[in-house]
Amino acid sequence: MSLITVGTMAFDAIETPFGKVDKIVGGSATYVAYAASQFIKPVQQISIIGYDFPEAEITHLQSLGVQTEGVEIVKDKKSFFWSGKYHLDMNSRDTLITDLNVLEDFDPKVPDSYQGTEFLMLGNLMPKIQLSVIDQLKTNPKLIVVDTMNFWMDIALDDLKLVLKKADVLLVNDAEARQLSGEVSLVKAARKIMEMGPAYLIIKKGEHGALLFHQNQVFFAPALPLEEVFDPTGAGDTFAGGFIGYLAKTKDISFSNMKTAIIVGSAMASFCVEKFGPERLKEITKEQIDERISQFVQLVNFDIDLV
Amino acid sequence: MSLITVGTMAFDAIETPFGKVDKIVGGSATYVAYAASQFIKPVQQISIIGYDFPEAEITHLQSLGVQTEGVEIVKDKKSFFWSGKYHLDMNSRDTLITDLNVLEDFDPKVPDSYQGTEFLMLGNLMPKIQLSVIDQLKTNPKLIVVDTMNFWMDIALDDLKLVLKKADVLLVNDAEARQLSGEVSLVKAARKIMEMGPAYLIIKKGEHGALLFHQNQVFFAPALPLEEVFDPTGAGDTFAGGFIGYLAKTKDISFSNMKTAIIVGSAMASFCVEKFGPERLKEITKEQIDERISQFVQLVNFDIDLV
């Protein structure tokens, strides 16, 4: 079993109320790879980087079972760069700089060695790029998970709708679910979005947890209340990586197993925010992950005899 | 076993994106009484009303096991009146009118017949009034649950701190928990607030659910994702009424049973928002409550073998 993940590998500059980094490795595919490789190997990476992306980072990812044949290196351009500043509540942020650099030329080619892969994670990218990857696959994946954002709903809605027709699971936040559906009620929004294609919809609500919708069922996963949220950057991608990594490991895409996968993703995301960038993800152990998942079990566990 | 509830009985004018009522019965003690009386009788009401409060409402409450000896009727004044308008997201609202009327004179007297009661629900009121009720009780209640709001933190913090010293459970929302503690992290906020007195802290997050803190433990109860949120007015008081009503019924104030009580409170609140004012609470049956609680069980239930 293997997993293709498509997304950015980049540099971020991040300022939070607790500190500041001028340049740290980031990008959606980086976070997905660190999270997913805890559960499944190989993780087959598709991305684009410039001459400045650290070789040590690539080597480190490879040592975790991440294949990088699909990572294009552009010799005369810089890597994608994003800079943002978080507000005091850590729930909102301002983007200060977006330098596309290599991302302007991103036209991913799926390597032959990646063909036959059953799980596909499409990070938040221009819908045309997401479509191009799906179209290059010679066999249909067992599960396609798609992340997107309001920006693409604004400027590329028709393409996004084509992606949604092929998606099995869509990941959006609550504001995006409302925008995409035109419904305020998340229950109604979910119904409309599932009619657009994906059989499963995950609505991420940051520190308020996540909802999984499927047909008439709904599951709620809380976020773990944390002592310190140091840097939320990448938490959503880490969640996605843990989610699809766990599904690929267990080879079970039932609603029941997706509920578990969401808890796993939430646990991984709870580590991500504890340090700047993907630093915390690099050091966690299987035992720490199990311990964190146990905390989620405790967090929502209650007994009831009906009243 | 019985329960004293202290709070307002009032008229509300409410505008939501889904409709408008010019005058409907409301008030914290009204909602608490409707919710708690599903679980425990008698509910011993302490409040103040004017000449205009409908006698039929009082009679209806009495038929549900609500005692009204502690409800003072002022013959020459109007009942408390609140008017508000909800924003499209239903999470925020503007207060348009607050006519205190009888509330200006509220100096509650605990009737002799209420003495010996083991559960006390102090609705959101001036802390001095909350203190006065506690001081009038000849035997210490088994459990004192206190609701309050940012307004009292602004203008009567010293009195509020005296109340907190005597409270067992404090109910606040997330912004209020942050204001009261001066901490952004809810985990840190909870620790500081529990040092002020209450052994248990419930942080209400509206459509995002509620957190229960006790010592180093934390429990998360989701809100049920609803098709329609018609009118959120009174949802917090209904939650409180279900919570303390269930505790009084089961006579068990352990952390474990409080978790269950929070689910019960959340279920009751999920009914409250389905119609204007307390209308929906007046018509629900035991079977519907059990059915709704089952939905909460489904909502958070997942299986996991550690990964």
Describe this structure in words.
The structure is a homodimer of 307-residue chains. The first copy, chain A, has 307 residues and is an alpha/beta fold. The first copy, chain A, has one domain: UDP-N-acetylmuramoyl-L-alanine:D-glutamate ligase (3-Layer(aba) Sandwich), CATH 3.40.1190.20. The first copy, chain A, has 11 helices and 13 strands. Chain A starts with a strand and ends in a 7-residue tail after the last helix. At the A-B interface, helix 7, strand 13, helix 9 and helix 11 of A face helix 7, strand 13, helix 9 and helix 11 of B.
**Biggest sheet overview of chain A:** 9 strands, mixed
CATH topology tier name of chain A: UDP-N-acetylmuramoyl-L-alanine:D-glutamate ligase
N- and C-termini, Cα separation of chain A: 46 Å
* Protein structure class of chain A: alpha/beta
Estimate percent helicity of chain A: 25-40%
Which key terms come to mind for this protein?
homodimer; 307 residues; alpha/beta; nine-stranded mixed beta sheet; four-stranded mixed beta sheet; 13 strands; 38% helix; 25% strand
Question: How do you describe this structure in short?
Answer:
Two copies of one chain form a homodimer. Chain A has 307 residues and is α/β, with parallel strands linked by helices. Helices cover 38% and strands 25% of the residues of chain A.
Helices and strands, with pairings:
The structure is a homodimer of 307-residue chains.
Chain A: E1 3-6, E2 10-16, E3 19-26, H1 28-36, E4 43-49, H2 55-63, E5 66-73, E6 80-86, E7 93-99, E8 119-122, H3 127-136, E9 143-147, H4 150-155, H5 157-166, E10 169-173, H6 174-181, H7 186-195, E11 200-204, E12 210-214, E13 217-221, H8 235-250, H9 255-272, H10 279-283, H11 286-300
Parallel strand pairs in A: 1-4, 1-8, 2-6, 4-5, 8-9, 9-10, 10-11
Antiparallel strand pairs in A: 2-3, 6-7, 11-12, 12-13
